[in-house]
Amino acid sequence: MQFEYYPETDSLYIKLSEKTSVDSLEVIDEKMVLDFDEKGCIVGIDVYGHASEILDLSYLEKLGVLANTQSKSSDGDVSNQQRAVAD
Hints:
mainly beta
């Protein structure tokens, strides 16, 4: 399981599987999207725009499952991102 937090959009992606998403479903007042693989299994959960309101991110940080990283966008800019892997 992998957690990726994007502070600039207050979004959190929870990656549950390495499988490719082929379908998605919006839930929770357009604040959460479930991603599904070709067999209909959930492969990821996207909480966007209000992740810090829906989830206790400080708790995830205390557990050590969110760690600061930097990522480069397609145009080469570096942006802050938090990424973690949980067993």
